[in-house]
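Quick one before lunch.
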Amino acid sequence: MKAFRHKNARTVKEAVTLLQQSAGKALPIAGGSDLLGEMKDFIETPDLLVNLKAIPGLNKIEQKGGTISIGALVTIADLAESSLVRTQLAAVAEAAVVIASPQIRNAGTVGGNLCQRPRCWYYRSEFQCLRKGGTICYAAAGENRYHAILGGGPSFIVHPSDLAPPLIALDAKARIAGPSGERTILLEQFFVLPTVNVRRENILKPGEILTEIQVPVPQNGTRSTYWKQMEREMWDFALVSAAVVVRQSNGPQGKVISHARVVLGGVAPIPWRSKEAEAALIGKPLDQANAALAAEEALKPAQPLRDNAFKVDLTKAVLRGAILRLA
Ligand SMILES: Cc1cc2nc3c(=O)[nH]c(=O)nc-3n(C[C@H](O)[C@H](O)[C@H](O)COP(=O)(O)OP(=O)(O)OC[C@H]3O[C@@H](n4cnc5c(N)ncnc54)[C@H](O)[C@@H]3O)c2cc1C
Ligand code: SF4
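Model of the iron/sulfur cluster complex:
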């Protein structure tokens, strides 16, 4: 690991100032469970780490009126155990509890989970691929069993965060602090495809940090779930996953779905919202036939690579299962 300086930021403003002063050579660190691994492998070689964990107040989960506020420094373990999250945001709690190991859940934070870097094996080794400033995506014609089947190219990573799909499905917003002040955007707009930026997975500019996730309190009758399919039984990233949120109402033909959100994980360089699947569900009864139809629609745009065609059928099965869990 390259030698680096380490500074504790005591406020969000101080963190932003420190990062801005060393723009390009400084990185924020929270739990360190992803960043330190990257530094040991010389994938990231910052001169300065700005420790966010010394900032008070960013580790709280609380309801403020119609919004559930989740600070960026809330640990994944605290998120999984929060009664507010478990009762109101079931899909988020279900995702949190299947992330990595207890040790990583104790150290890893919500902000770090959403900002973690890809797990592509070329990226994580000595290959100087597109995402590291090179000219080739080695996965495109190489070993691509775990890579993207949707939205891929010119890089084919899959976004590794388990928290992002359920948070997006619940219409979460991200609060960002930076040199020019604060802004709040839909979390869905936080992530970027490689066609927009092949070097980064989100819109954060140097000097900007994520400070809070804001989730609207779901309307009465809203149900949500997260289904994660792993290769190993536990402690693994999602091979594919699906976050589904639905609300049903009584219509002239009986109970039908009046609100639907479908966000897939492990299939695309960003958490992949399927508006096709949502459209296939709206106005229909929540049953096997409509769950199967939604899954077919979601995967119609899929373009698998040489080794990962199996993910198409797997994702359909996972999505069907997740939808039917809410019946
Ligand atoms: C063995 C292993 C298994 C794992 N399995 C899973 C899994 O199954 N599912 C899953 O979702 N994840 C998994 N992870 C990833 C894990 O969840 C992340 O490492 C963790 O959430 C990162 O949080 P952290 O606070 O430690 O972030 P750090 O390591 O401190 O930071 C991660 C990145 O985010 C940046 N960052 C951190 N906080 C902020 C912020 N507030 N604003 C802006 N940038 C920030 C850092 O600069 C760095 O680039 C796994 C990790 C490991 C090592
Ligand atoms: S998928 Fe992305 S990270 Fe992996 S080799 Fe290709 S460019 Fe690099």
